[in-house]
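SEQUENCE-TO-STRUCTURE ENTRY
===========================
What this section holds: a protein sequence and its matching fold, both as plain text.
Tokens: labelled as protein backbone structure tokens, with as many entries as the chain has residues.
Question of interest: how does this chain fold, as expressed in backbone structure tokens?
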Amino acid sequence: MRARFDVERMARSAKEASCALAKAPTSLKNAALRAMARALRKAGPLVLSANAADMAGAKGRSSAFMDRLRLDPGRLEKAARALESVAALPDPVGRVTPFARRPNGLRIERMRVPLGVVAIIYESRPGVTADAAGLCIKSGNAAILRGGKEAFRTNAAIARALQEGLRKAGLPAGSAGFVSDPGRAAVRRLLTLDSLVDLVIPRGGPELTTAVRRESLIPVMAHDKGLCHTYVDAAADLAMAEEVAFNAKAERPGVCNAMETLLVHRAVAGRLLPPLAARYAGAGVELRGCLATRRILPAAKAAAASDWDTEYLDLVLSIKVVSSLDEAIAHIARHGSGLAESIITRNPRAAARFLREVDAGAVYHNASTRFTDGGEFGLGAEMGISTQKLHARGPVALEGLTCEKFLVRGTGQVRDSGAR
């Protein structure tokens, strides 16, 4: 009962804070973000100590998991700078665009407005705590933050610092609430508060996203799995293909925009795969391939049917040799998650077809899928990468946390009773 009461009280506090935030001028929101950054830096020793305790408690987990969980002074400073970078971005709230002038003289415009209260439920990456809170504040929304139990101490320390910054700037601490109960009952209760919370954003693996979608009475913006592909076309520059494919897998494998499957046209597979496999071996990447791949790379393990649908988030890569662009596009359509896909080719027609026909939030030509990121797109810190098609898709930053309302200006017009 205690968890239920606390969660509802927090949601009511967030609802009240959202009213203040919706009216807050850009200057006040920017001042709050800078104060949050200062408070986070000041709390650095406490945050890093909490993270060390979380890391100790997670011993035995995969290296990719530990990388997502780990904070160091550099990553903490990056989180603080991300808050300051959001302060420097244009404010979408209040932006008005013309829509129509009706024959009866009504003048209609559209205005960007906050969503209200946004609950973010996320797993092991504690930097999300600061990123999510900052984006919500700048877009005029109150945030309710609920991180994974593995990072509970770290997230709590970050949230306390952010709330201190908000208070010093003159905004309610409820603008960035933190669910301090790590139990599942608190989350289940939160997901029923549809009169207080306007949107839920799950950030994590498929199990988290599925559970939130199943239990939530609140609209959900899914940050689903990132099963990304790179297709090396017959007309690819192979030196470029090697660099892009290596970066997409090995640079940071534990993130959603890392490549999980490499598709290679059979015309170039024999020349590309051996030198690329040698580089992967040096980086500790395990290769799993189709029969044609294993004829070229005998050391590769045989890929099971499930590998084509697996987001490894680790130093594991599945490789398939394909006979055509059509086969590559069809494979992505069957197995892709809709987050990011890439083609490497010097053939402009093949590139145009891939960009047009592949269904994903971000589609690349001659570049790594690792760029699928709010900061890399010039959006500042991101709330996540939406793999759905309603409201927002791809990296979700400030504008994705707002919606539009119509402004209708008249001169006394009334509707004809015969009109429908």
Remarks:
- The domain at 228-371 is CATH 3.40.309.10 (Aldehyde Dehydrogenase; Chain A, domain 2).
